Amino acid sequence: MSGKALHAGLWNSLFCGLFVILIGFSPLRAQITEYSVTFNGLNGIAAGPDGNMWFSGNRNIGRITTAGVVTAYPVPTSNDASGGIAAGPDGAMWFTESPLNSPASNGGWFAKIGRITTSGVITEYPLPDPMSIPTAITAGPDGALWFIESGNGKIGRISTSGTITEFPLPASEVNYGVDGITSGPDGNLWFTQGYAANKILRMTTSGVFTIYTVATFVSAGSLALTAGPDGALWFTDQASKIGRITTSGTITEYALPANDSPFAIAAGPDGALWFTDSLGQIERITTSGTVTSQVATPTNTAGGFLGYIAAGPDGAMWFTEVGGKIGRIPTGVTVTPPTITEVANAEGESPTIAPNTWVLIKGSNLAKAGDSRTWLGSDFVNDQMPTQLDGVSVTVNGKPAFVYYISPAQLNILTPPDAISGSVQIQVANNGATSANFTAQAQAESTSFFVFNGGPYIAAVHLNGSLIGPATLFAGYTSPAQPGETIVIYANGFGPTSAQVVSGSSTQSGTLSPLPVLTIGGIGATVTFAGLVAPGEFQFNAIVPSSLANGDQPVTATYNGLTTQSGTLLTVHQ
């Protein structure tokens, strides 16, 4: 690590499992552009599903196009100071609301969550406690929005239909509260603590907390965190550091120059992290800990204080300036957003999908050019299937899918096990650039056989594990099934089983009831077992009808009125 020295407190920190590294700097040459806004108090900023940036401020929600055209939408509550803002899974933007001025002289206390469509229609949802002071907000891993209630020590959840649930912080943390919030790659919510605390908190969607102590936090603590492109969480430490915490709780910190107090942080499309600081500067850190030199904003509004930062659909980073400006800094990446052209069952390409089903997504720019791979063992964390590969992720109605294969033109995913029906929204994110929502149709089952090499031969094996098929399919490895033989067939999309599927778990099981109706060569085959044996993978044990003639025989399975794809074959030979 040339040009880098160890922080003086490293050896003490090693005892706590915390690494603090003083990193070197390299120059960042980028031109910041600023755009004036008609209202001030600018705060949160996020990319919207319409290809624009959306931001919050005093009494207004703003939208800015990538060309710099600003539109302001007044919030119905006149004394509103909008806080955090995030894109929801429903194609709208969601934001927090609390009083701008003294509640006593301006209509009393209120606390609301707001929703604004991309056409500017605002709906407000009052929180149970008008003094809860909601602040930061994020889209959760469960298709809802999650937010911080800084006034009463709670974490809030609001469904896209407006149903609100609250979870109290652990008793030991109520007096400190939390500041930053983000969804982690592990399917949990993560929080930072500012001011007099020194902790990172993790919370499951059922409200179970885990607390990690950051030994080097000072009284300022941390105010923001984000999911990084490397599968970890990155946070700002106002003691002149940027921190990284893995989903298992291992913490590393990278020291900044003295008096450099970072504030907000976000992942960029270039695979690095970008952050704002209290001196009116934008900085960048790679996932290996190299920090570029500071770039100051052209103007020094509001004492140079910058707000939040987010990746835009144009490959740039966009940030708020409290005094009434939106800033843009290029990352050197030209981003073409992903485009989805097809969503279908991965086998047979039925356009109707189902929960816990293998699905293909076709389109363009779905992954970086030249990036084509399946998941690896290293992509699994705590036996959880990965929700992203190399910065590529997919949501189904806002809930993360499990990503098995990526390439620029096709993705293969396992849909979440949550019940879906009717029209569902599919969205692909490729290293900070998001596709438009693609509307697919869903139901409880979407039945198909797995097939070899795209078909027509079904994926089946003899009981000894050897492959079934014509001898020429995989020379030396495949052989026909025999009449009267019990074989194993693999299938996809057959719906719920006797055991509930745990989302993300790499282990799945459970039996189907009733058994599917299987025919081979038009003759009913006896099915002795049907159930899940692996994520999204069904196994049928079946006896090949003894009266079948030699040759390729058509195979179908019917379940709950649905039949597998046409044209599939099983080779039989006496």
What does this structure look like?
The protein has 574 residues and is an all-beta fold. The chain has three domains: 5-330, YVTN repeat-like/Quinoprotein amine dehydrogenase (Methylamine Dehydrogenase, Chain H), CATH 2.130.10; 339-442, Immunoglobulins (Immunoglobulin-like); 448-572, Immunoglobulin-like. Helices cover 1% and strands 45% of the residues. It contains one helix and 55 strands. The longest helix is centred in the first third of the chain and has 6 residues, at 10-15. It is elongated and about 85 Å long.
Short description:
The protein has 574 residues and is an all-beta fold. Helices cover 1% and strands 45% of the residues. The chain is elongated, with a radius of gyration of 27 Å.
If classified by CATH, what would the architecture of the largest domain be? Answer: 7 Propeller
Biggest sheet descriptor: 9 strands, antiparallel
Stretches where pLDDT is under 50 for at least 5 consecutive residues are: 1-29
CATH names the topology of the largest domain as Methylamine Dehydrogenase, Chain H
Fraction of residues in helix: under 10%
* Number of helices in the DSSP assignment: 1
CA radius of gyration: 27 Å
Shape field:
elongated
Number of domains in the coordinates?
Answer: 3
Mean pLDDT: 88
CATH superfamily of the largest domain: YVTN repeat-like/Quinoprotein amine dehydrogenase
Structure class = mainly beta
Top-tier CATH class of the largest domain: Mainly Beta
Strand content: 35-45%
Q: Kindly state the number of beta strands.
A: 55
> How far apart are the first and last residues' alpha carbons, in Å?
67 Å
